[in-house]
Structures are given as C-alpha cells and as structure tokens.
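Page 47, continued from p. 46.
Same chain as before, 266 aa.
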Amino acid sequence: MATRVGLGPALTRPTPRGRRLSWEFWAVLGLVLVAWEIGVRVTGVHPIVLPSPFQVLESLRENPGELLRHGLITLGEMVVGFVVGLAIGMASAIGIFYVPFLRRSLYPLLLGFRIVPKVAFLPLFLVWFGAGMTSKVVLAGFAIFFLVLVQTLLGLSTVESEAIEFARSLRMSRLAIFRKIRLPSALPAIMVGVKLGITYALTNVVVAEMLVAREGLGYLAMHARSRLATADLMATIVVVILVGLAVYWVGLYVERRTTSWYVEEQ
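Result:
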C-alpha cells in the first residue's frame, strides 16, 4: 500500500519555538563576531587577508545603494528563473507520471542530466542566449527544474491507494482525482523542492554573475576581489546570505499557507 510521503515536521513547518530566532542564535553569533574581532586585533592580520567585523560593517554602511541595486538585479534574475523552472518542472512531472511512454523514455534521460553540475552548462547557454540576463535566468530555471521534477513525482506517486480507489468508486474523472486528491497530497513533497530550489536558483545565478556578468552580486564580489577589497567582498557575501534567507522564509510562508492541513496531521 502506498503511503503519503513522510517528510516530517522538520521539513514542513517550523515549531512554534523556531518561528523566531532564539536567544541562543544571537548569543552564538555575538560570540563569533567578538572572537573574530579579537583574533584580527591580536594576530595583526592584514585587512586584505581578513578584515574585522567592523570593517565589513563599514563597507555595508558606505555602499548601501550599490549593494541594493546589484542585489535587486540578482533577486530579479533568480525569481524569474525560479518561476520558469518551477512551472516546467511541475508540468514535466505530471506528464511523466501520467504518460508511461515518457516515464520509460524521458525520465531516465533527465536523471542523467541531473547528475551534471548545472553551471557546466553555462558556456552552452552563453552561446545560445548571450551574456545578458537570459542566460542566467535559464541557468537558474534549469537548476531547480530537476529538484521540482523529482519532488513532484515523489508526491504524486505516494498518495494513499485507498483514497484513489474510493474516488474511482465515486466515478470521479482523472482530472478531478488529480485536482482534489493527488495534487493536494503531493504539496508537502513539492514544497520541499520549492524551498531547496529557491536557494539553489540563487546560488547558480550568483555563480553565473561571477563568471560573465557586469552587474549583480556575483559581479560585485568579483570586482571587489580584483581590487583586493576583502571587506567589500565579505559585505557582498553578507548581502547574498540575507537575500537567500529572505527568499527561503518566503518559501516557508508559502508552505505554511498551502500545507497547513499536513502540518496539523503531523
């Protein structure tokens, strides 16, 4: 008998205690920053090698406009790529699930492509789409396509068989069974792919910007490296972390809104 995929509370919804950053987090973060500052002062390491936290903070304070502009460019590329990859991934998973020919022929081929690091396709995308925004959007969408595909297939194939048999006994159509049973039951698994895919898309966009772009956080990081401005480089990394956390929290919010029934059941 098929059972609903057991993702567990840790992969579905934060516990009430985990909805806010705990005092333990802030305590550890403070200790790390203090140790970092003391270590830099005691060892006398050059700022090019390792700037102090205050130097990184100063870089953030001095360049908010530039960081915001490049951050919005990276965020825009990531969001467009994510939406495209999500839509194509879900559509492909539904087609593979319902069409045996696609499952036997196309799915093994896609799994083979999944093994290859997605950034390896960037030179090919540059030939096809140029060095502009399109190549980075395609890379981001290509990267999360496989996550969404696998998780959607997992969710669709692990619906309780009793529910399907009961729906068929009521003479529900395949479309009605999909809309009212399979898709809702698959949402917890799909949302795992969504949450992972959001940050995965950001990673691939930043890497692509490091290699070919003239704008975006990846470009900004490489520009700082070329100037040996390590404080600016670390400030850019901080912004990347903040963008990643922000989009991940958006994913958590969407998950809570779409799978509240599953969380309560868990």
